[in-house]
Amino acid sequence: MTLPARPALRVGMIGHAFMGAAHSHAWRTAPRFFDLPLTPELTVLAGRDPAGVTAAAARLGWADTETDWRRVLERPDVDLVDICTPGHTHAEMAIAALAAGKHVLCEKPMANSVAEAEAMAEAAERAADSGVRAMVGFTYRRVPAITLARQLVAEGRLGQIRHVRAQYLQDWIADPASPMSWRLEKDKAGSGALGDIGAHIVDLTQFITGQTLTGVSALLETFVAKRPLPASSGKLGGVGGEGMGEVTVDDAAVFLGRFTGGALGTFEATRFALGRKNAIRIEVNGSAGSLAFDFEDMNVLHFFDGGEPAATAGFRRIVVTEPEHPYVGAWWPAGHGLGYEHGFTHQVVDLVTALAAGEQPTPSFADGLQVQRVLDAVERIAADRSTWTEIPTHAAQDEGPRPPHHSQARGGPLDEAEEPNERKDLS
Questions:
Q1: Distant-in-sequence, close-in-space partners of 304: CB < 8 Å, separation ≥ 6
Q2: pLDDT digits (tens, 9 = 90+) for 302-326
Q3: Which residues pair with 13 in a beta bridge?
């Protein structure tokens, strides 16, 4: 297929495992279904192992390879750097890429600490003065049903938001024999279920409601403290071998929150929910209506209109596969569902469109920093008697007045004498 003659957006990607494969598919696919103002080119793929990165480049469609990520930043034939590596590498790579004048797409969670995220946001702000942009990969925002949910809230169909419930439930490490991986090591992952999947539901609830979390109270738990060292690894799991390794992150996180508009939020993130494979469940209740979503039925949004007569009122099952729905018109005939990979393609579409227009793509690094502050507050307060902890925000991010009675939340505000960026080891 010959693509329309458009200016190129030459991409260099660092990392080629699970997320690297998903991002590669998106870069290849987006210009073949959407009329993009720039044509993505898969210029170079970086990985540490020469044989591994060469094989991945051939499989995923990349033209060239590097074994040192710094070489990607030095190349004049790279316009954008796509970071798909573990969290402990994000800050150094992103800051260096922005300093080199490259646009950046960085996988979530944006960093392993508030300090790293602040440095990344500051680097992005400086780079923006020269037209260089940065975005965080909170891909689930681009699921059509989620985007439709945001539209319904923005149109006032739910009225004043009162309750937000969010769960992200998986079971891929519920078996104690599942081996160690970098996702279970604090120095690489930053946190466990909290940062890996909890970050998604923090972002999604703030995206859907248009509000930010102002404070939290939380519990974290590690159910399996030691696991077999891996004999081999896969995209998420692997096969256990000899010896045992120490799990230094949380297996599950449960926390309460309050949003800028006064709504109460409940959150749960776990990788120990047997039978739940990738269940992102969001429910929002307002004064005029409600909505509900489950990613394991990702093409459906449930909507309740509180203005309907009681005799016939009920949740309406909306199959989000019509051309009128967000993103859907570029794909298949009406009624044909989309899958996990389509969110990544929509992410590319929105990113490329924003870059071509000279606009800031969302979520920005400032948005990523705000999510990181929520994760940090959850982790700190879970280690300190689970009392209420307020989340510091920039004035520009304060999207509404402080809700009534907020100061009466159990535990009170964060002690100003405490170092705001301190992260306590929960192992």
A1: 289, 290, 291, 313, 314, 315, 316
A2: 999 999 999 999 999 999 999 999 9
A3: 45, 82
